[in-house]
Design a protein that fits this description.
By secondary structure, this protein is α+β, with helices and mostly antiparallel strands. It has one domain: Alpha-Beta Plaits. Helix content is 24%, strand content 17%. The protein contains seven helices and ten strands. The strands form four sheets. A four-stranded mixed sheet has the order 8-1-10-9. Strands 2-3 form a two-stranded antiparallel sheet. A hairpin with a 6-residue loop joins strand 2 and strand 3. Helix 2 packs across helix 6.
Length: 245
């Protein structure tokens, strides 16, 4: 085993111990705070976590969701936009016929049938029972097949040495990463940092909830208003929906 591999595994083992949980498909990745589930309690297929984003409420000058995500998960740039990690990004879409423009955040879409999972040779990319798609850094070999397979360009490869990492969001040079839907917050009974920041510092464009619960606010809105999945024609069934797109 190379020194690089040893250092990466040693760090990830320490970070996982700090979070108090073993990384494995179908079980809780993190458990922090009094509201967290029991560490040996698996994620439930009765729930499917998702996001609804009202594009009409998302403005070009607001980056509250991006800033919150970066701060929450310790994602920092190195002045190289082509290779810097991006867990969430703002994009501009334009109707070529009318010239109308809209701005919206794009992140991992947490697909029900995630292409990244299908192509991963080691099983590092996996989907939890509750719909959250993650990367197990212990077994990610950095092949980047998942990056090629993702139709949303939602994954990043870590090129640089990292420091000052968050114990609940382990990262590692030579591995692939993407939005985790702030799984550590979700497992503790909270909401993703981007959603919280959008409500407090932004325009309230984002809603988080259980897509399987017809009584949840997100399900009621989807049942009431027309919503869209980006590239819904691909049949991957994203867990992120957009209203007024």
């Amino acid at each position: 085993m190379s020194g690089f591999d040893f250092d990466r595994r040693r760090f990830l083992s320490a970070a996982t111990a700090a979070a108090g949980v073993v990384l494995a498909p179908g079980v809780t990745l993190y458990g922090i705070g009094a509201a967290a589930r029991e560490l040996d309690e698996p994620a439930s297929a009765d729930i499917r976590w998702g996001l609804l984003i009202d594009v009409n409420q998302c403005t070009e000058d607001c980056d509250a969701c991006v800033t919150a995500c970066n701060e929450e998960n310790g994602v920092t740039g190195h002045g190289r936009p082509a290779t810097d990690a991006q867990w969430i990004r703002k994009v501009r879409v334009r109707d070529p016929k009318t010239g109308a423009e809209k701005h919206l955040p794009v992140m991992c879409q947490h697909c029900a049938e995630p292409p990244c999972v299908d192509v991963c040779p080691t099983g590092a990319s996996f989907k939890r029972a509750d719909g959250i798609v993650l990367v197990d850094k212990h077994i990610c070999i950095g092949c980047r097949y998942c990056m090629l397979a993702c139709p949303y360009k939602a994954r990043s490869f870590i090129h640089e040495n990292l420091s000052d990492q968050k114990p609940y969001a382990p990262r590692g040079k030579g591995t692939v990463e993407s939005c985790t839907m702030c799984v550590h917050r979700v497992d503790a009974g909270g909401t993703p940092a981007c959603v919280e920041a959008c409500g407090e510092d932004g325009n309230g464009a984002m809603l988080f909830g259980d897509l399987n619960d017809p009584g949840s606010e997100i399900s009621r809105r989807i049942a009431t208003y027309a919503t869209h999945q980006i590239r819904g024609d691909l049949g991957v069934d994203p867990g992120v929906r957009y209203q007024n797109l």
